[in-house]
Specification:
The complex is a heterodimer of chains A (about 475) and B (about 100). Chain A is of the alpha/beta class. In chain A, about 55% of the residues lie in helices and about 10% in strands. Chain A has 17 helices and ten strands. In chain A, strand 8, helix 16 and strand 9 form a beta-alpha-beta unit. In chain A, helix 5 runs antiparallel to helix 8. In chain A, about 55% of the residues are buried. With about 100 residues, chain B is mostly helical. Chain B contains four helices and no strands. In chain B, helix 2 packs antiparallel against helix 4 and helix 3 runs antiparallel to helix 4. Classes of the chains: A alpha/beta (about 475), B mainly alpha (about 100).
Chain lengths: ~475, ~100
């Protein structure tokens, strides 16, 4: 392999330090206390990587600094900074999944553009000899462009579904598995052929097919599986960065790519496990639309108990411990602030209040924790499923708000249920279950009836989540 | 650096990533996603090289504009990603003072 002169040692060292900063950024997230320091390490690493690049690869014309190009670069960074900062400030926390999907699409597209730039001007990247790109670099570049393109088009579809611009219902094309596998095989074949022939048609065809497959892969996946999709695309954006890191022989990019790639893969695994679904079955698609699509479960006429806000307030005041089980419905109703107010009043009465979070309670990993944090719920009152599940048996009241499938006991007992085997919160073990629901008609994402509604120790509070909590607050006050 | 050196860095970094990410508390999984988003925009390094490369060839000038476009996208992500992460983490901060 012949390469242009390798960058001097200080440049390589600076990139390595930037990579280490990125590791420390993720390490900081092991606790809320160290997390902000971690984020600052991330920013420092990025500053170092960008600064080093700008100094070492500064634009030159006739041996002097090319100020025009420098100003163009500065303007490009400034435009991005303004868009990024304004978006970050304005975005609602409920919209985080869409934002993350949109950001993923940008990383993907940036990777495609960088790969294309490296293809068009390989000398600048030190990967070509007299216009002939080295075969190894061609593979890396092809992979970078392909993964980037999949990340881009996949994230755009995920964004449209999460943002409600596109139905959450899975869209199933006939023969889609054959089409998808065929396209994937064609992309791999083209990357292999690219090592023999660096003609433009090979590069652009494989990139175009990759855009297509990203679209085809995500379209059949239902709204309920979007947490897995977002995590998976997070992983892809990492692998795209890593592939380009190989092309540029840049350790900061390779380390980051590996970190982000593993991060997304682990989060996808955690999400799949929380839904008891295999990764393959999620990718194959077709499961779970959004709540509208999943309506119309069989209406069984079974007796159930209905309670009022006053009943709920009375019961909770008498309790020693209340565990609140929030779901995404709570966030949709914007009930989190009222809920925290209710918890504060209960605490004043000497009631111990805890929150139980199912991993898929929100629209992305950890989403519910952020929504509660935004409502000023102290994070030491918020517990993960495995940490709190044994406590329900010792608890007076389980207060379920905006959650459904994640509390369904059928997941433990009914082998015929579509959610059988999914880890659920053992709310039915509490002395009394208070279950807020808009009406008795609707069902959860999985489209199954919840046996919990008809149990002797369950009291249904039928109303909009926010209205009901507001009324309970009034009764408590 | 030869290919094997780069591959070694990559493989070891995957292991580091595996262990570091498992140690992230589930409560911070959303900030984890937004910060990984921000750092994966280190791809801006490639964009800057393309944008800065002086070239008189047609391919070179196209590459330059592709690079500049990628710089815009990556910096949206860098500034947006770190800022939104900081905003989320600050919400976890308030509670510590209690």
């Amino acid at each position: 392999m012949h390469h242009a002169a390798a960058p001097p040692a200080w440049v390589l060292l600076a990139y390595l330090v930037a990579g280490v900063c990125f590791i420390l950024a993720l390490r900081g997230l092991s606790s809320p206390v160290s997390s902000r320091t971690g984020n600052r390490f991330g920013m420092a690493g990025m500053l170092l990587a960008v600064g080093t690049t700008l100094i070492h690869f500064r634009p030159l014309s006739d041996g002097r600094l090319d100020t025009t190009t420098m100003i163009q670069i500065g303007a490009a960074i400034a435009i991005g900074a303004v868009i990024g900062l304004v978006t970050a400030r304005r975005i609602a926390m409920t919209a985080m999944p869409q934002l993350v999907a949109a950001f993923h699409s940008l990383v993907g597209l940036a990777a495609v553009l960088v790969a294309a730039a490296a293809y068009l001007n390989p000398e600048a990247f030190g990967i070509a000899d007299d216009g002939v790109i080295s075969p190894v670099s061609r593979v890396e570049m092809g992979l970078g462009a392909a993964i980037g393109a999949i990340t881009f088009s996949g994230s755009v579809i995920a964004f449209l579904k999460l943002n409600g611009n596109m139905s959450g219902k899975p869209i199933l094309l006939p023969m889609r598995h054959v089409i998808n596998l065929g396209t994937l095989a064609a992309i791999l074949a083209l990357i292999a052929y690219f090592t023999q022939d660096q003609s433009p048609w090979v590069f652009w065809t494989l990139t175009g097919l990759a855009f297509l497959i990203g679209f085809l892969l995500i379209v059949p996946i239902g709204g309920a599986d979007m947490p897995v999709v977002v995590s998976m695309l997070n992983s892809y954006s990492g692998w795209a960065a890593a592939a380009m890191g190989f092309t540029l022989q840049n350790s900061a990019m390779i380390i980051t790519g590996a970190l982000v790639g593993s991060s997304g893969a682990i989060l996808s695994y955690i999400m799949c496990r929380a839904m008891n679904r295999s990764f393959i079955s999620v990718i194959a698609g077709g499961f779970g639309g959004d709540s509208a699509a999943a309506g119309g479960g069989e209406a069984i006429d079974r007796p159930w108990k209905r309670g009022s806000a006053e009943d709920a307030a009375f019961l909770m005041k008498q309790a020693e411990q209340v565990i609140i089980v929030p779901g995404y419905g709570m966030a949709v109703a914007q009930a989190q602030h009222a809920l925290r107010e209710m918890a504060d009043l209960l605490k004043k009465e000497g009631v111990s209040v805890k929150y139980a979070i199912h991993p898929v309670a929100g629209r992305m990993p950890g989403h519910m924790n952020v929504l509660l944090a935004e409502a000023n719920v102290p994070y030491d009152e918020v517990f993960e499923l495995e940490d709190i599940n044994s406590e329900f048996a010792r608890t007076d009241i389980a207060f379920v708000i905006g959650a459904n499938d994640v509390t369904n006991p059928a997941a433990k007992t009914d082998k015929a249920s579509p959610i059988y085997g999914m880890p659920v919160l053992d709310v039915e073990k509490a002395k009394t279950v208070l279950f807020i629901k808009r009406s008795m008609g609707g069902v959860g994402y999985a489209g199954v009836d919840n046996e919990l509604f008809y149990r002797d120790n369950t009291m249904m509070l039928l109303a909009d989540a926010k209205k009901m909590v507001d009324e309970i607050v009034k009764s408590l006050g | 650096m030869d290919f094997i050196t780069i591959l070694s860095i990559f493989v070891l970094a995957c292991f580091v990533g595996y262990f570091v990410v498992w140690s992230v508390t589930p409560a911070l999984h959303t900030p984890l996603m937004s910060v990984t988003n921000a750092i994966s925009s280190v791809i801006i390094v490639g964009a800057l090289i393309a944008a800065a490369a002086g070239s008189v060839t047609l391919g070179g000038s196209t590459a330059k504009w592709l690079g500049l476009a990628a710089v815009v996208m990556a910096s949206v992500n860098i500034f947006g990603g770190f800022a939104v992460t900081a905003r989320m983490l600050a919400m976890y901060k308030k509670k510590e003072r209690r």
